[in-house]
Amino acid sequence: MSTSIVTTPEADQQILRADEWWRENRPAARSLFTDELAGSFAALRRAPQIGKPHRRRGIPGLRRLLLPRTRYHLYYVFDEGQDQIIVLSVWSAARGRGPRLRK
Questions:
Q1: Which mean pLDDT values do the consecutive 10-residue runs of the chain (103 residues) have?
Q2: Where are the domains of the chain?
Q3: What is the DSSP string of 8-62?
């Protein structure tokens, strides 16, 4: 059985906005964000614990994974019992502050 990845509605909106921004503002690398995101999802399926633990009150097991080329962070939790990764947020590291998170 393969680890599944689900995204919250908030993460879905963030992904759409980031992809749109990337395509409009980076003509030489329009698909870089989606390519890097897809690669990170594949890596997470193989090794769900690769993200660094990230402490946030009320969200046990929260982890953060940097997408180095686009400078976005994936905030996620891994539910071992369900063998499922839940992506809570996809947030630009350039913003200087983290996202509001809720599980």
A1: 89 95 90 95 94 86 94 93 93 70 63
A2: 4-93
A3: -HHHHHHHHHHHHHHHHH-GGGTTHHHHHHHHHHHHHHH-TT-SEE---TT-TT-
Domain 4-93, CATH class in plain words: alpha beta
The answer, as to whether pTM is greater than 0.70, is yes
In 36-75, which positions are buried (b, 16+ CB within 10 angstroms) versus exposed (e)? Answer: bbeebeeebeeebeebeebebeeeeebbbbebeebebbbb
DSSP annotation of 2: P
Q: Give the dihedral sign, CA 54/47/30/10.
A: negative
User: Rg (Cα) of the chain, in Å, rounded?
Assistant: 13
Q: Are 78 and 61 in contact (CB under 8 A)?
A: yes
Single-letter amino acid code for the residue at 4: S
CA angle, 94 then 50 then 71, to 5°: 15
